[in-house]
């Protein structure tokens, strides 16, 4: 189930900043050569992530779930001059392709890319993050949220993708994945340590600001 009609999606894309050429290339390559290309953030959500990053001017970003690197580059656009983004993914088959995308982006020196299990990797990081973007296996959203929480500065953002899950979350769907996402979102809604809202962007972005 698509949240937005094709016409509305096109309108939104025409009324935001243009998609940078390197991101158009990554999108094209992903749709042609990678399975499950719908996992890519895409033009409009990418501009939302870029906009949020530029508002925060982060020195450190953590991304959980790299896929083909599209969102990584969008987030990197807002980094300070000495800023870094750490991104981790478990899919080693995409590594060569992703490294090529980063090399083309102009942000390669700001990106630290790791192939690892995120649950094992996150505790090894000795950084304080301004933004964390969680866009990996949905069943572990809660685990990732808990692991990163104390690594996010006061006023920092934790952003979680796919919380509307193709419109299933508010349609009464009872499958295990929908229920897991619904339960996680409700837990965050009751978390008094953060301000929160859900944006109906693409498949739903949950944005929290740490108090």
Structural class estimated from helices and strands: alpha/beta
Share in helix? 25-40%
The major sheet is characterized as: 7 strands, mixed
Spatial gap, N to C terminus: 34 Å
Q: In angstroms, what is the radius of gyration?
A: 16 Å
Strand sequence of the main sheet, in spatial order? 3-2-1-4-5-7-6
C-alpha geometry = globular
The number of distinct β-strands equals 7
**Approximate strand percentage:** 15-25%
Helix/strand order, N-terminal first: HHHEHEHEHEHEHEE
Output mean pLDDT: 95
Topology:
Layout lengths: L5 H9 L6 H13 L8 H15 L3 E5 L5 H7 L7 E6 L5 H11 L5 E5 L2 H4 L7 E6 L6 H9 L2 E10 L14 H14 L4 E6 L5 E6 L1
Parallel strand pairs: 1-2, 1-4, 2-3, 4-5
Antiparallel strand pairs: 5-7, 6-7
Helix pairs in contact: 3-4
Q: Could you explain how this protein is built, in words?
A:
The protein contains eight helices and seven strands, in the order αααβαβαβαβαβαββ. The chain has helices at residues 6-14, 21-33, 42-56, 70-76, 95-105, 118-121, 141-149, 176-189; strands at residues 60-64, 84-89, 111-115, 129-134, 152-161, 194-199, 205-210. Strands 3-2-1-4-5-7-6 form a seven-stranded mixed beta sheet, with helices on both faces. The longest helix has 15 residues, at 42-56.
């Amino acid at each position: 189930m698509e949240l937005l009609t094709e016409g509305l999606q096109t309108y939104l894309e025409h009324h935001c900043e243009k998609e940078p050429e390197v991101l158009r290339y990554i999108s094209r390559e992903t749709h042609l050569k990678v399975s499950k290309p719908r996992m890519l953030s895409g033009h409009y959500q990418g501009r939302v992530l870029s906009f949020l990053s530029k508002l925060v001017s982060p020195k450190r970003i953590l991304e959980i779930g790299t896929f083909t690197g599209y969102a990584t580059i969008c987030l990197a656009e807002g980094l300070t001059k000495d800023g870094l983004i750490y991104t981790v993914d478990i899919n080693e088959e995409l590594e060569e392709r992703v490294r090529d995308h980063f090399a083309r982006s102009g942000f390669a020196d700001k990106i630290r890319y790791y192939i690892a299990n995120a649950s094992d990797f996150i505790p090894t990081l000795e950084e304080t993050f301004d933004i964390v973007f969680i866009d990996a296996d949905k069943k572990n959203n809660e685990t990732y949220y808990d692991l990163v929480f104390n690594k996010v500065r006061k006023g920092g953002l934790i952003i979680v993708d796919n919380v509307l899950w193709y419109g299933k979350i508010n349609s009464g769907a009872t499958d295990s994945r929908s229920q897991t996402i619904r339960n996680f979102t409700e837990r965050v809604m009751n978390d008094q340590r953060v301000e929160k809202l859900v944006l109906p962007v693409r498949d739903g972005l949950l944005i929290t600001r740490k108090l």
